[in-house]
Amino acid sequence: MNDFIRFCVEVCIGACSICILVIALNHSGWYTYHERNDMDNLYREWSSNPKFEQAQLVFCGNSHVQLLNDSILQESFEKKVFSLSCGGCRFQDHLEALRSKRDNVRPELIIIESHALFSELGMNGRVTRNYLPTSLMNFFSIESEWEKIKYLARDVIRNRSQIEVGPGWLAEAILRPREREWKNGFRKSHHPPIGAVELERYDHDWQPFSDRPIEQSVLDDLKVFLAECKAEGIAVMIYESPMYYRHFAPQDVRRRGIEQVAAEYNVRFYDLNKMDCLVKNPLYFQATHTDNQHLTVSGADAVSNVLVEKISISLNERR
Amino acid sequence: MYQRSGGKMGFAGFKFWVCFGALFVIYWAALNFQSRIKYRNLALLIGSYLFYASWDWRFLGIIFTSSVLDFLIGLQLEREREQLKRKLLLASSIVLNLGFLALFKYHNFFIDATESMLGLFAPVSFSRLNWVLPVGISFYTFQTISYTVDVYRGIVKPERDPVTFLAYVSFFPQLLAGPIEKAKTLIPQFHRIHRFELDVMKGALLRILWGAFKKVVIADRLAIFVNHAYAQPEELTTLTAMTAIVFFVFQLYCDFSGYCDMAIGMARLLGFELSENFKRPLLAGNIRSVYQRWHITIHKWFKDYVYFSLPIHKNNLQRGLKVLLVFALAGLWHGSGMNFLLWGLLNGLLIFLLDPVIDAAQRSASIILGTVSRGIGHLAVYLSLVFFRAETLQEAGVVFRSFLKWNYSDLAAIPEHFAQFGLHINEMIVAVFFVLMVLLVECIQEYAPEASVRFFRGMGLWRWSVAMALSFCIILFGFYDNREGQGAVADKLMQREFLYEQF
Fold first, then answer.
1. What is the residue range of A200's domain?
2. A29 shares its domain with A46
3. In this complex, is the C-beta atom of B471 within 8 Å of any C-beta atom belonging to chain A?
4. Per residue in A241-291, pLDDT tens?
5. From CA A103, how far away is CA A101, in angstroms rounded?
6. Same-domain status, A189 and A289
7. Does this complex have an ipTM over 0.85?
């Protein structure tokens, strides 16, 4: 019987050790670090960030904007720049953020990147999470016993694949280079450029991604927003971030939709995909076979320099 | 680790482990005493029946009927002296047991075969029976048949206590997918009081963790790729088809041997000793040896009750035919399709035709020749498993034809190809790492058994560290429910049950 009790005690100690370590891991926040880009987290960050309120140039977009070089942008104009952007962000999300801070935020120019003009997966579809049970009743109302136990370690359990599919996020979470890398909502690109293998693939085995029109509901929202900005005296500029020229088929239908709206509201629209100096340089673009090709560090610098020119035109016109 | 759908209590379910923990404590604290041995066996029987009923309570009727019939036939066999009547009793037991199996498992196979034969004369069509296959029926049916045959042969005495016999047939650690236990090894263990040995218990716990690791971390991970590949075989190229075939070998091995490790570990926690079902088959020297080390109990069953029951062979051809027959039956035991039959026949043929060549090569002085021949033998077995995994012969044909779709650019886009089949490239790398780890452990067990002994007898800190590492691997790398990332996309194609539970 002594051995039996000893065995039970050792198993309990082992189980407790595992639970404590998993709960500690959960509490470290490492496994939710990659979610700080989620809209609810970003909203919290945007609304509490004084840089947003002070910004004179506000960029709205998704990952394409996020990777721009903020030093080039800020130093060229000597104006405060802020990026309302995150991976997968939609224009409607920016609208809500801008409208909610309408009284406090008065930028000179809003720059919209057109890859955010899509309508899938809005904020309404996102899950709101409660990190701790708010009452004992709430705790026991969870249906399965497994759910109850994993409640305390839910982030680790839910995001356990991070260790494999996003080890970079975990490393970043552990090393916390946040202050160094995150500047005014921009961040440094970590994407590798197109190499010889990908170029070969473009030569032999590549079907360019097709031209897809922007949904009418998004264009309608854009029109409403442009009208609001016009009424409040805020200048707007729209641009489309470039991708490698062989990655996509010509985006005529897509471009036409934006051009029509821009012309209607007298807003400048620049499709950077028309600039051969950008789109024909493989070093500027991420080596990928998905339909969302990002800029590399040198690509982000090149696009930022081009944008400086374009923004200057818009700012001069405003004066 | 994960919650299964419905009330099913599988080894990989959280509920099961809560119930098992409770049983374990009650078993050692209150039941495992000489004066309470009947209650202990009754508790094991009730626990086993509740476990089985959690899948579908109607299954209980089948296992109960089958067990009671064999119990009664066993008693009658002992009383009966007349040889003809004894043979009749034995035949009735075999017919009844195989009848259950045929009714629930092979009905559609027989209908298909009849249709095909009659179709030679005129097109006919019979309606199919959509009955659910009771889990574990192939395993406990063979276990009860072995009991009556052994009683008939006088190898064991019939069990007189119905509770013990019913508990033997339905003993929950090995009920769903074996190991198939002979009466002479398992029934006596129900009659004695077990000693609680601390080292044995710790070893059992470690074995359960090792089994769970193999199942949840390796097999279920590889299953995502394999299930995707076989769900869309037309999409396979040479590279992905080869990957799917190799991955299935490791998936099947880790899934089934993981189950067996857990079953053996669990039985040991209750003081029972179950037979080993695997003995490092991936390190076997030839094809015959693969099957002497893979699912040992079923192959031993076929050897003892089919092969040795057939007339003694007088030449190699007759021996070959016997081997073919045994392997054809073993194939059909796994499933009721022509693909399983073909898989069994292929392996029988490989043993008959290829093994002599492999043996000759290994006897030669050349290490290279020996290694290459061993590799060819394994490759042949792995390729034959395409028939085992594919649902139809046509599907297997599509997989084999995809070998011809070679494209050099595939090598440049391996991550994208793997993503197409549900796994992120890093998930693949981790899978390969863990598979190599399993192979390394097996190599140590095979070639340096003293190291294995040192591990279990040496400093406890090592075992403690390994147990903790395995637990963390299961929690952080396991493919159980609610896994986000690449695996989440493939949720429908996740492998939830153990593969052998469906047999």
1. 38-118+183-318
2. no
3. yes
4. 999 988 888 888 888 989 999 999 999 999 999 999 999 999 999 887 777
5. 6
6. yes
7. no
